[in-house]
Amino acid sequence: MKKNTIKSIKGFKDILPDEIKYYKYFEDISSKVSEQFSIDELRTPIIEKSELFNRSIGDATDIVTKEMYDFVDKNGDSICLRPEGTASVVRSAIEHSLIYDRGLKKQKYWYYGPMFRHEKPQKGRYRQFSQFGVECYGFSDTNSDLELLIIGNSLLKGLNIDNVTLHINSLGDIDDKKDYEKKIFDHISSHVSRLDKYQAETLAKNPLRLLDSKSDNVKELLLNIPTLYDSLSNKSKSRFDMLLRKLDDLEISYLIDNSIVRGLDYYNDTVFEWRHQSLGSQNAICAGGRYDLLVNMMGGDAVPAIGFAMGVERIIELLKLNDDLKIQKNISIPIINTSLEKETYVHLISKNLRTTFGKINFFNTDSSASLTSQLKHAMKVNDTFVIIITDENIKNKSLTIKTSENQMSDMVVKWDELITYMRKKYE
Ligand code: ATP
Ligand code: MG
Q: Against a cut of 0.85, is the pTM above it?
């Protein structure tokens, strides 16, 4: 590569043709599963007002304080590349009256697209990444938690991803959350000198976040703190117990994990994360929870909600590890034209073949090249089936085919015969 070539920005990656097939597979399965659960798709813009995230995610969170791609645009407005999908879905759903508090109709939406966070790029962590998310509105009972967890499980199953563990926890309601934050604060505040500057700030602004800290000093300080579960009010505890019983009934396995607190302010009660061991330290593949107060806080009705977001790049890594995965590569069949006289006939044949066999990719080789080089190119793409069109073929409305069954020797067939042959072989 020459010295002065322009490269992509750190943390932003190109998705090359070899990887695209995994993304397509993901997109195909996720939209099918969404359809099965009657979830509607919502597409929101990639840029939103910064205020949307400051208000919803919380201005003491990592995303807002450190990771947001926010800037002032030409009108002087403070805008940003969206760091996550939930706030945008809530904004859009309120703006277009898509969510109601009548409890009559359950409203479920899915989204898929790029998100942007200015974090330290590493395996499984990029500055542009994709999330597939599902958000359900209108119900606050544990059945709605259960349904969302079933949707997540069905998606992972549909993608053939095994060996995932569902880590689950309950933050309780707003009062429980506040009480527990106070407990953490009281437990640690006399040891602030053992925290670094960033940890001390977290203790002051968002103490719950210390629970999912990976640093040994914080872990040690939190060693004897009562668990979140033990600190829940009876009401929150029995809600959580009921959900766990339902998961048991349905034989959905889970792990109660006191360290799952989720980084964003808007969560309450159920929070969860699916993790996969093969991914090293970036092992969370899907995460979410309830956010019963957010819609109201953002100016909508008091509509309870629950949702999750799946990290697509991490899912793609898992798909690549799965040898059994039959991601069908499109079959490409080359059409060689040796008739320079009636070039348009070749395009007519190609067009008919594409219409008849939608899934097969018929492509025309470069007819200005010699037959030998056209054949070379054709065999590189498909060494079992090649279509050739000669002057003779055009005269008697036939085609020449070379197939591996015929040791790639020339065989002249009529149009109908070709169709029958292809149907037998490819349908
Ligand atoms: P993490 O603890 O890994 O930073 P998070 O709590 O910030 O995750 P969420 O905001 O819950 O992540 O996003 C849901 C999912 O999106 C994560 O579980 C992960 O799979 C994926 N994800 C989050 N940030 C990134 C990133 N920078 N690059 C790639 N995937 C990401
Ligand atoms: Mg993060």
A: yes
